[in-house]
Amino acid sequence: MATTVGVIGGGQLARMMIPPAVELGVTIKVLEETPGMSAELAATGVGDYRDLETVVAFAKTVDVITFDHEHVPQHVLRALVDAGVPVHPGPDALLYAQDKLLMRQKITELGLPSPDWAAIENADELGAFLDAHGGRAVVKTARGGYDGKGVRIVDDRNGADDWFTALAEDGRGGALIVEELVDFVRELAQQVARRPSGQIVAYPVVETVQKGGICAEVIAPAPNAGSAIAQAARDIAVRVAEGVGVTGMLAVELFETRDGRVLVNELAMRPHNSGHWTIDGAVTSQFEQHLRAVLDLPLGETRPREAWTVMINILGGPAGASLQSRYAEAFAAHPAAKLHGYGKESRPGRKVGHVTVAGSELDSVLADARAAAALFD
Amino acid sequence: MATTVGVIGGGQLARMMIPPAVELGVTIKVLEETPGMSAELAATGVGDYRDLETVVAFAKTVDVITFDHEHVPQHVLRALVDAGVPVHPGPDALLYAQDKLLMRQKITELGLPSPDWAAIENADELGAFLDAHGGRAVVKTARGGYDGKGVRIVDDRNGADDWFTALAEDGRGGALIVEELVDFVRELAQQVARRPSGQIVAYPVVETVQKGGICAEVIAPAPNAGSAIAQAARDIAVRVAEGVGVTGMLAVELFETRDGRVLVNELAMRPHNSGHWTIDGAVTSQFEQHLRAVLDLPLGETRPREAWTVMINILGGPAGASLQSRYAEAFAAHPAAKLHGYGKESRPGRKVGHVTVAGSELDSVLADARAAAALFD
């Protein structure tokens, strides 16, 4: 079997692949963007993931390529594939995580439920969509958005003019996406892993709470998710994984509507914030699962180890201080809390770590996790 | 707080400290004996742990020193302490893990239960002990033994003559230890962690099965260990930890006798094979706990995540093949098994990895773990 996994990108997702790589006894090498990033310990190269030469040179040192993020350009990915490098997920799949317009088209083509949506190229088209949807809608750029960037709520036909202008100036043209503002009860996320040879396993659907477009809190499994909701979420993720040929981890972010439907919101083809709970809470963490999948090894059990697991992001971290400056206080008060630090400097709104607590009673697990995470504000 | 832990020794115990160091966001640096050892990923130095200059130079790059093994000589340890380096466990404690004769004296002095034992300096003394204990006994060298080395069952007064000769030739003289052959029901192990500032936490007592003097299988918690046995094991370990001033993890290997007593067999002042189950099975693994303890951080919860956890060592590994050559088969048949590979070459009897399975029914957990581990023979 292939035993050296190369990860493009040195962020916390690459970092969190290091522990399971050490445990499995497989070698992990990271191409980080700049020296001293989150995944520094496993970094064997520094360079720009958009530069073909840099990426090809890195790929020669590993057996399979995977990713910390979805930003590696298609021409670089395709050159790797043409050179015979196993790339997971491959460019044909990653396309749908890189371009939200293509994603919406594909989801619709697969017969899966989306919010009402349209590709729009000007203010008139936006205006028409607004008129048909109560005067408010979500506008997204097709590319370059994440953690709430490139997403905007609009109630004016001219509310996306700056983006239209930027698209026109870009020369490549293209469209924005407009989507109905879903009146959702809550947000869910469904993760599955898929091997190149086709095996798929699904994690329990989880509830996610977003703050300012960034994942803040995850409850696993999603409370009060009846079998119909859980089954619908799972079916959607499996059909997406198979429909676009995802290899590795896939996260499907979903809206649960008041009338009990689930609609596809976003896709991520890598370990995802909504799955960090699995590190401490599931038999096989999403990071180990991703490594297994990209190495085309049989996938691990996804069962939660305890009844409830809650994960809370540390956003920003303590002002002017390190995460570590709070360890003594936090560990003393919360011995069951699992603290994960990403080795990143604190900065307002930045994901610098997370806290996980698992146990048998949701109320106490949630209270413990929230109180522990609050010590890192 | 101190945030860089230096580990002397590059074996699998150092390796297994890497994942929790990454998770906690603390830096780990390893001084390995030769290049390419098990903990290679975190190695920042290569050298002989018996060489003062090498160790002092390494210590200058870290905030606190701890160990993969107990073999660093006392004069090196004391020089570090004299130089102001925090060393955990410190030389005064480590002495009792390095010298079994001092350990037996100390355990007896603390009023804790040992098998009958004596320090012996010649065949006459051995003969007298054998006569008083049914003609058979265990002889041990005070120093240098581990995994069954330096331990011998003897039924002849001349059965340790070679060791007496070696001690005499060594010039430093000294004694061997002879111990009664305990007619035990089973072996247990009790782990505790202790911080420099005194906090102690205890793990559940576990049952260990030895094969050829090497730990082969661990069941956590020990089945049918009534509260009296569990309490006795815990009390002994706490009293040892306090009595010798251990910092970090302490494992006390115990015999459970037919009449329901527990006797101290061996001590280890570091993460221990009997605690590998905690990586997948406890809220806080022994490796994270060891890091917390040596950094003098509040200790984590020791509660098992599931009712039963079984750990089985992979001894030797597949003849002429890598562990990885069996992953596909093992993972397909045992999706709940957690495989830990140590990055070491297979060699008969060598610990090259372990398998852990956790769940609610001991019989099925045990069967799953054994069957998974058997695929790596």
From TrEMBL, chains A, B:
NCBIfam families: PRK06019.1-5, PRK06019.1-6, purK. It is an enzyme of class 6 (ligase). Its EC number is 6.3.4.18. InterPro entries: ATP-grasp, ATP-grasp_carboxylate-amine, ATP_grasp_subdomain_1, PreATP-grasp_dom_sf, PurK, PurK_C, PurT/PurK_preATP-grasp, Rudment_hybrid_motif. Keywords: ATP-binding, Ligase, Nucleotide-binding, Purine biosynthesis. Catalyzes the ATP-dependent conversion of 5-aminoimidazole ribonucleotide (AIR) and HCO(3)- to N5-carboxyaminoimidazole ribonucleotide (N5-CAIR). It catalyses: 5-amino-1-(5-phospho-beta-D-ribosyl)imidazole + hydrogencarbonate + ATP = 5-carboxyamino-1-(5-phospho-D-ribosyl)imidazole + ADP + phosphate + 2 H(+). This is N5-carboxyaminoimidazole ribonucleotide synthase. Belongs to the PurK/PurT family. ATP binds at residues 100, 140, 179-182, 187, 265-266. Homodimer. Residues 104-295 form the ATP-grasp domain. GO terms for molecular function: 5-(carboxyamino)imidazole ribonucleotide synthase activity. Pathway: Purine metabolism; IMP biosynthesis via de novo pathway; 5-amino-1-(5-phospho-D-ribosyl)imidazole-4-carboxylate from 5-amino-1-(5-phospho-D-ribosyl)imidazole (N5-CAIR route): step 1/2.
